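Quick one, probably user error.
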């Protein structure tokens, strides 16, 4: 996601390539301007579908990053020279806006890295307030983020036909929306990457999660404005 807030441009967990590992992108490639004039990166955890080192090297000019504790060494391998490591409750400033790290219930383990880093989300505060949780399951403190939240970017699936632990599916993401009560909610982490060839055998996870999510939010939190964006789409607050 590219977040433009208070004159600041933040890119979350960038994967800019169309193919990596056994995954292939569905839908359009990221627009060329997505990486222009970036003020910072928000790195929620080190899994390969959130930190792709070749994508980081494609950014060109140096971009500082906020990341969970233990993440700086891996990001340096991708060319990120300035990394501020955060634990839940820590805050940092980027271009005059405040970013607070939030808890996330998700493994931070990465293949080939001896010391696992954690996983965090981000509470971004300027003239609007945006919550980007990275990958997470529901957690007890989530309801505490509900105060005057303008936008929640909630993950509703992943990159495969099944979800492992530490993820929100459409039902649990709808429960998260009911806890957070944002003014606007955009479902993310669906419909972009999928194992090669799997789209012919099991196409449902590529297209169904946002429809199921929107229907459940309409039941659990009808005041929340759900905006389903196809990969490559945008919206304004």
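Nope, works fine. Designed sequence:
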């Amino acid at each position: 996601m590219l977040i433009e807030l208070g004159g600041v441009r933040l890119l979350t967990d960038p994967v800019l390539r169309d193919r990596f590992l056994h995954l292939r992108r569905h839908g359009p490639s990221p627009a060329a301007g997505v990486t222009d004039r970036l003020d910072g990166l928000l790195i929620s955890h080190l899994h390969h579908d959130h930190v792709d080192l070749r994508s980081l090297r494609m950014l060109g000019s140096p971009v500082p990053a906020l990341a969970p504790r233990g993440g700086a060494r891996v990001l340096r391998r991708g060319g990120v020279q300035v990394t501020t490591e955060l634990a839940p409750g820590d805050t940092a400033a980027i271009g005059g806006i405040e970013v607070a790290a939030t808890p996330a219930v998700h493994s931070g383990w990465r293949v080939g890295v001896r010391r696992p880093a954690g996983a965090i989300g981000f509470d971004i505060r300027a003239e609007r307030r945006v919550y980007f949780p990275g990958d997470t399951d529901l957690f007890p403190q989530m309801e505490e983020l509900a105060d005057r939240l303008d936008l929640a970017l909630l993950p509703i699936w992943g990159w495969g036909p099944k979800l492992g632990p530490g993820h929100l599916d459409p039902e649990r993401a709808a429960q998260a929306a009911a806890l957070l009560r944002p003014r606007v909610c955009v479902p993310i982490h669906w419909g972009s990457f999928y194992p090669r060839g799997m789209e012919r055998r099991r196409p449902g996870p590529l297209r169904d999660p946002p429809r199921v999510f929107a229907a459940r939010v309409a039941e659990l939190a009808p005041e929340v404005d759900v905006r389903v964006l196809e990969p490559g789409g945008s919206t304004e607050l």
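Residues 150 and 237 are 8 Å apart (CA to CA).
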